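Honest question from a wet-lab person: if I give you the sequences of every part of a complex, can you actually get the arrangement of the whole thing, not just the pieces? Trying it with mine:
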Amino acid sequence: MKWRDPLALIAILLLLWQAMYWVIGDVALTSPVSTFRSLAVMLADPRFWPHVNETLLAFAQGFAIAVVIGLGIGFLLGAHSMTGEVGEPILVALYSIPKVTLYPIILLIFGIGMPAKVAFGAIQGIVPIALFAMNSIRNLNPVFARTGRVLRLSPLASTQRILLPAALPEIVTGIRVGFSLTLVGTLLGEMFGSQRGLGYLLIQAMNLHNMRTIMSVTLLLVIFAASVNAVLLAIDRRLHARV
Amino acid sequence: MKRAGIIRTVVILVAVGALELLCRTGVISSFVMPAPSTIVYSTVQILASGRFAADIWVTLRNVSISIVAAMVSGVVVGTVLHRLPTARRILDPLFATYYAIPVYAFYPLLMVIFGLGDLPQIAVGFLLALMAVIINTLNGLDRVPRVLVKVARMHRLGGWAMERKVRLPFAAPYVFTGFKLCVAYSFVGVIGAEFITSSRGIGYEISYAYNNFDNQVMYPLIFLILAIVTVINMSLYAWERRLLARRRT
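Yes, you can. This is the full assembly:
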C-alpha cells in the first residue's frame, strides 16, 4: 500500500505531460514516450557520459565542501550561545539573498571551469546545513548533557553516545535540504560558465532550440534528484520517528 | 542595542573594512573586485544618472507580480488541499521533492508557452515561490488547536467562514514564514531567468556587464539587488516580530 500513492502521483504527472503535449504540440515539448526513448539513446551514446561524470564530480565536491563547512559553522554557532546570537541573523540574511547574482563574482574569482561550479554548488548548500545543525544543537534537551555528566562520561563519549544521536535527525534534514540546493547550484553554475556537464548541455540545447535534448536531460535530472531525495527522505523520516 | 547586536555590527564592519583594505592595497586586483566604497559610490551614481532605471523597474515589477501571484495562489491551494486529505497524501512526495528539481531546466518550455516577453521570467519566480507558500500554509493549518475549531463550531461557523475567521488567522505566523521565502524565491527565479535569456532587467544587465568585463557596472548592480532584498527581508522580519509580540499579550 505504501507504494500506491507515489505510483499514482507519477501516473498523474505522466498523464498531465501527455495532455500538455497534445495541446501544445511538437514545437514546445516532446511526448513522454519519445522523451524516454531519446533519453535511452542518449545514455547509450559514449559522448554523453563525460558530461554526466563532470556534473557528478562537481556536485560531489561541492556537496562535500558544503557538508564539512556547514556542519562546522552550525556546531560552532549552536554550541557557543554568544557566537550563535551574533551569527544567526547573518546566516539568515545570507540564506535569503539571491545567490544567483553572486555568480559572476565567483566566475571572476575562480575562472571558468570546475572550481567555479564546485564553489557555486557549495555556497548554495552551506547555509541551510549550518542553520539546521545550529538549531539541532541549540534545541538539545539540557537534561541530556547533565545525564552524561551524572554517568561520568568524558565529554567525547558524552558527545558520541548521547548528544550526537539526539541531534542527528535535524542534522540529516539539513543535509537533505543542502543536497537539493547544492545540486541546483552546481547545474546553474554549469549553465552559465562551463564547457562541459549536464547544465552546459541544457544551455547549449536552449540556444539551439533543441527540445529533444532539453527534455531528455531535464528528465534525467528530475529522476536523479527525485530518487536521491526519496532515499534521504526515508532516512530522515526514520530518524525522526525514532526520537 | 543588545550586546550581540553590537558585536555583530563590529564583525560586519571589520569584514567590510578588511575587504576595503585588501582591495586598496591591490591584494585583490580591481579586475576581480573594486573596493566596497567604490561600489557604493558607483551605485549612488548609477541610480542618480537613471541609466538603468528602466531595467530596475522591469525587474522589480516582475518580481512583485511573481510574489503577489504566488502568495495568493499558494494560500488558496494550501487551504483547499488541507480539506482534501487524499489529494494531499498523493501530492506529498511532490512537495518533498519539489526543491530538488532545478526549475531553470523548465525555462525553455516556459519560453515556448509564454513567449519571449516578461511572462517566462515571472513564471520561473512564481513556480519557485509557490511551493514555499503552499507548504507553510499547510503546516500552519495543521497546527490549529482542536479547541479553536470546536469553539468555531459552537458559533456555527462552517466551511469557508471557519477557514477565514479561525484557521487562517491562527496559521498566519506560519504563512508569514512562507511569504518570506516567497519573496526570496521570487527574486532568485526572476533574476536567474533574466541571466539565462532575456533582453532587459537587472539580471540581464549584470550578465551583459560580466560579458564585457565591465566591473564598474556589474558590482554596483549586484550590490543594488542585494541591498534591496536585504532591506525587504529586514522589514518583513521587523513586521513579523511586531505581529508575534501582539499575539502573545
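Two things worth pointing out. Residues 159-196 of chain B form the longest helix (38 residues). Chain B has ten helices and no strands.
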